[in-house]
Design brief:
Length: about 350
């Protein structure tokens, strides 16, 4: 792991799967079945302290307090869009800031989580990479983002039905914590987010795509593609030098064959760069034989970047060309266009303000 997670005096209780919690309980001289009670307090009743777990003995509550941390995130600010999107800026125990977003859909509420403090991938269109990578998040710090979002939804009598791992950072560079996070939120005795309602997005860490195919179960995989050929993709995404497009697509085919699940290709449209009819035709040639879906993304403007949005009529022209070639394609609905919508923008603003 090139960048470590935060190592405080105590680990986060949210970093433990139920099986790991059972092991700890037995080692602490208690009963394994208490793990399900603790999970109920954490993820169903959503308490803020161990002292609220009233069906546990005082001795066990004291051991929990002495051993684990709880509630690792402090809300710095939140922005609420006219479309109902809620964007949180949270502070971690070591002072770093991360973003989490609630997005409203006709099929439910989706929570977009962050997996790293910053990012080192260096995509030329992304605000998340500004300032580089500071560290990985613990599994519990990722879990806590879903929990904090759910507490907000509790106020409205709603629940988080979907999770997308598309926030700040490259999830596959924090692979072990990612897998632990997925197992914890998928546990039907806890937050109970269905595997098919979870999507993980990667910029294309090829070896981890193979590993994810073997370990990820029925969790959906999305690939940040953004270009129909290797030369253009290298200009937009320097990671293509290390993991060329040809190798990336081989890994994608392995994932499809192994899981039987289709892959989503995320394709950001950047005015005059990758959005012309010939690009659409080339993209169709590239992926036309695969079980896949293309999600076209009209880019959000980022002040520190110089990309411009593709005109609306050209977005629909691009979509039409793909459809005519038999590609399943959608245009991503905009969320939070009236707030700091692009991933990493709110954190970047906060960093500027605190540095000043």
């Amino acid at each position: 792991m090139p960048f470590s997670s935060y190592t405080g005096e105590k680990p986060l209780i949210y970093s433990l799967t139920q099986d790991e919690l059972k092991e700890w309980l037995v080692g602490a001289g208690d009963k394994a079945f208490r793990a399900q009670q603790i999970f109920d307090w954490l993820y169903v009743k959503r308490v803020h302290s161990f002292d609220e777990m009233t069906n546990l003995s005082k001795d066990l509550r004291q051991k929990l307090n002495e051993t684990f941390r709880i509630d690792p995130l402090r809300e710095i600010t939140r922005q609420v869009s006219q479309d109902g999107t809620v964007k949180f800026l949270f502070q971690l125990a070591d002072g770093h800031a991360i973003e989490t977003v609630i997005m409203r859909h006709n099929y439910g509420n989706s929570v977009c989580v962050t997996t790293q403090v910053g990012c080192r991938i260096g995509c030329t269109f992304c605000a998340s990479t500004l300032g580089g990578l500071k560290r990985n998040l613990d599994a519990g710090e990722i879990v806590a983002q879903v929990l904090m979002a759910q507490r907000k939804l509790d106020e409205e009598g709603e629940r988080a039905s979907h999770v997308v791992v598309m926030g700040i950072g490259e999830p596959f560079e924090n692979f072990d914590n990612l897998i632990a996070f997925l197992r914890i939120i998928n546990d039907n005795r806890g937050l109970n987010i269905g595997a098919r309602h979870i999507t993980v997005s990667t910029s294309g860490i090829v070896p981890k795509i193979y590993e994810f195919a073997d370990k990820g179960g029925q969790v959906n995989l999305a690939i940040s593609l953004h270009a129909p050929n290797t030369e253009l993709r290298t200009k937009l995404m320097p990671i293509n030098r290390g993991f060329p497009l040809e190798k990336l697509l081989e890994a994608c085919r392995y994932y499809i064959a192994k899981t039987g699940r289709r892959i989503s290709f995320e394709y950001g449209l950047f005015g005059g760069k990758n959005d012309q009819p010939e690009h659409a035709e080339e993209l169709a040639d590239l992926i036309g034989d695969m079980l896949c879906h293309v999600n076209l993304i009209p880019v959000n403007y980022v002040p520190e970047r110089d990309y411009v949005r593709t005109p609306r009529n050209e977005i629909f022209r691009f979509k039409r060309i793909l459809e005519e070639r038999g590609i399943n394609v959608t245009i991503r609905r905009e969320h939070g266009s009236d707030i700091a919508a692009a991933c990493g923008q709110l954190r970047a603003q906060y960093a500027k303000e605190t540095a000043g």
